[in-house]
Write a structure and sequence with these properties.
Elements: H1 5-19, H2 44-66, H3 70-82, E1 87-89, E2 95-97, H4 100-107, H5 113-116, E3 125-126, E4 138-142, E5 149-150, E6 159-163, H6 171-183, E7 188-192, E8 202-207, H7 212-229, E9 235-238, H8 244-262, E10 266-269, H9 328-335, H10 355-368, H11 373-386, E11 392-397, H12 415-421, H13 423-428, E12 433-438, H14 441-448, E13 454-456, E14 460-463, H15 480-494, E15 500-502, H16 506-517, E16 529-531, E17 561-564
Parallel strand pairs: 3-5, 4-6, 9-10, 11-12, 11-15, 12-13, 15-16
Antiparallel strand pairs: 1-2, 6-8, 7-8, 14-17
Helix pairs in contact: 1-2, 1-3, 7-10, 8-10, 11-15, 15-16
Length: 565
């Protein structure tokens, strides 16, 4: 006999009503009072009916997401319910939820983790699953109680399903609660989440595998647990305020790596002026200058430290490095990992390490760039709308300001030169679609004349060669926020392609790193590359001459920005 959805929902309701359980889990969220489990469904028949409706939709959504037989889910829910904590009514506003493992510890005369973990600087309660729980089991947690949950055991649950029981909880409010939980739990990656109002409020999280789990676990403990003990002792590093790659992969990643090596937490702090040539970027990180009130990484990404950003940089607390060495405590697990061993060194500018070193350093960069809910949804929406056709190649062509880098000038190459360099791989891989990433409107013009391919590029403002700009003028649209969303979308689109064609550029190399990891889940699998050395002067002829090309760093003409649609 096949179990129907209604059978499951009826059984779950009986479990909840009979045992007064507000959450089906191997562990009940230890919260009480306002917003806690006690008030989850409200009071009276109307509130209970709304709660059952929420639960019903959640169960159907869980079934659909897990793509598994309902009988299996029913058995697991029943098994999990046997390990849940029992509630003791306290009267007044609600019920107190107590972990059974903690009760057992007290009965033996000991002190539970719940008794010892609370402090004025770190009020979260540690997550302590039942000894009978398996790492492969899924644990259900209530979104409204996530503030009081901190998971720090080395046998963390492999899967978490976060659900809301309050029918009045809105999507954005729930998303903020989940983001706050994820800030201090980088050990979990998001498998599924609601995309719009009206969808069941369910987040499905999965534990990262090793060796990345070891790195994220160490960062969580260093940047949140250790930092929160005394924020006055946290080290500081200044925002670099250069390009995206320099700011985040060089500076922030390097500093976090040193923090891991020295086991000293660190927080990013503004310099007095972020961009010398633009007074707009005072007391801000230039990419976030118009993104939110904080004007820092937290506008787009989850916080990287439990402590607030200091108003002023204190030189005596400085912690800064560009090194890419793997700390000794992680090195063996990365060097010996089966998916990384024996992989060839990639011949691409700024790739300094073998596969294990590249993978490790990209993980540290990824920690600092875990997107907030609104950014995840906006990027996801743009990627879906773009509809990139595979198989595809990524071509990154940086022009414009590279002629202005006086101590590291690079030369312009036409689009045809990039195609010629990659012709063998393009044919072998059967590629007809090319995702063109460029800062130049002239490059778009060139690509349109090469009809052998389907050219795709993100609609955005781009400079033309008669634009009067300065080196590292990243915002032709005038909106750092919009330019940042475009960059994050491009990184995700790039990960869908399996050939990289480019020149000498940190941004291009970073896009390639996204292709190595984001294309395949939790595997460092880098695609082929075909690159031009832009440090060498181009020997061919350009379709359109440019007074800056190959000779001068001077700009001519007036500022002109094209909107490419």
């Amino acid at each position: 006999m096949r179990i129907t959805t209604n059978d499951i929902l009826r059984g779950v309701f009986i479990l909840i009503a009979g045992a007064s359980l507000w959450q089906i889990s191997t562990f009940l969220v230890p919260t009480t009072g306002r917003g806690g489990p006690s008030s989850a469904f409200g009071s009276g028949g109307e509130g209970a009916a709304a709660g059952i409706d929420v639960l019903s939709r959640q169960m159907v959504q869980i079934r659909d997401m897990m793509k598994e037989d309902m009988a299996s889910l029913r058995k697991e829910l029943i098994d999990n319910s046997k390990n849940t904590a029992k509630t003791a009514a306290t009267g007044g506003q609600g019920e107190e939820v107590v972990n059974t493992a903690a009760e057992g510890e007290r009965a033996r005369g000991g002190r539970s983790k719940k008794d010892t973990a609370t402090s004025s600087t770190n009020p979260e309660q540690p997550f302590s699953p039942s000894e009978r729980a398996s790492a492969s089991m899924r644990h259900f947690l209530q979104i409204e109680g996530l503030t009081n949950i901190t998971i720090r055991d080395n046998d963390e649950p492999k899967h978490l399903i976060l659900t809301a029981s309050n029918p009045n909880l809105g999507l954005l409010e729930a998303a903020d609660m989940v983001d706050a939980f994820l800030e201090r739990h980088s050990i979990y990656q998001i498998e599924a989440e609601p995309g719009e109002e009206g969808e069941p409020l369910i987040w499905m999280l999965e534990l990262h595998p090793s060796p990345e789990l070891d790195v994220f676990r160490a960062l969580d403990r260093l940047q949140f647990d250790e930092a929160s003990r005394d924020c006055s002792l946290v080290k500081q590093s200044k925002y670099w305020c250069s390009g995206w790659h320099a700011d985040l992969f060089y500076s922030v990643r390097g500093t976090l790596n040193l923090a891991l090596t020295k086991e000293e937490p660190v927080v990013m702090v503004f310099p007095e002026v972020c961009k010398d040539h633009d007074a707009t970027f005072r007391k801000s990180w230039h990419y976030a200058a118009d993104a939110c009130e904080a004007k820092d990484l937290s506008c787009f990404f989850l916080r990287h430290n439990a402590c607030p950003r200091p108003d002023e940089f204190e030189p005596e607390k400085e912690l800064f490095s560009l090194e890419r060495n793997i700390p000794l405590r992680f090195k063996k697990s990365f060097d010996e990992h089966e998916s990384l061993a024996h992989k060839k060194h990639v011949n691409l500018w700024d790739v300094h390490n073998d596969a294990s070193g590249e993978f490790y350093n990209f993980l540290v960069y990824s920690y600092a760039t875990r997107m907030r809910y609104w950014v995840r949804q906006e990027v996801r929406r743009r990627v879906a709308k773009f509809k990139l056709r595979e198989p595809c190649a990524v071509m990154h062509v940086r022009q414009n300001d590279i002629a202005l880098h006086d101590n590291w000038r690079r030369f312009y190459y036409p689009v045809k030169a990039y195609i010629d360099t990659a012709e063998d791989a393009i044919k072998a891989m059967g590629i007809h679609t090319i995702l063109l990433m460029t800062d130049s409107a002239e490059v778009i013009d060139e690509a349109k004349k090469i009809e052998d391919f389907e050219w795709r590029w993100m609609p955005k403002h781009r400079f033309r060669r008669n634009s009067k700009v300065t080196f590292e003028d990243q915002f032709p649209s005038g909106s750092p926020k919009e330019e940042t969303l475009v960059l994050l979308t491009l990184f995700q689109l790039a990960s869908e392609c399996r050939l990289f064609i480019g020149g000498v550029s940190g941004f291009g190399t970073l896009a390639y790193r996204y292709m190595c990891l984001a294309h395949t889940k939790n595997v460092w699998d880098c695609p082929p590359v075909r690159v031009l050395d832009q440090h060498k002067e181009y020997s061919g002829s350009h379709e359109k001459t440019d007074p800056r090309q190959n000779r001068s760093s001077k700009h001519f003409g007036q500022r002109h920005v094209d909107r490419e649609d």
